[in-house]
Amino acid sequence: MKLTYDPTADAAYLYVVDKIAPGAAVETRLPDVPLKDSIFAFDFDVNGCLLGIEILGASRVLSPETLRRAQ
């Protein structure tokens, strides 16, 4: 797994797979409950397998140390 972080957008992406090919994420699902003023978007492939998770408002739910270690 790999975590990337864009501090300008305060957005993180947790890659569950090594690489996501362009167009591989064919469905994005949002949870039914709000999570600490952040948005989690779960990306799935055509087979329903989880590819990664986008976190908007990442600094509200991830520790500063985790964000510092992100790529």
Please give a structural write-up.
With 71 residues, the chain is mainly β. It has one domain: Enolase-like, domain 1 (2-Layer Sandwich). Helices cover 8% and strands 37% of the residues. A hairpin with a 5-residue loop joins strand 4 (39-44) and strand 5. The longest helix is centred in the C-terminal third of the chain and has 6 residues, at 64-69. The chain starts with a strand and ends with a helix.
Which helices and strands occur, and which strands form pairs?
Blueprint: E1 2-6, E2 11-15, E3 27-29, E4 39-44, E5 50-56, H1 64-69
Antiparallel strand pairs: 1-2, 2-5, 3-4, 4-5
Quick overview:
The chain is mostly beta strands and 71 residues long. The chain is built from 1 helix and 5 strands. The model has no long low-confidence stretch (mean pLDDT 94).
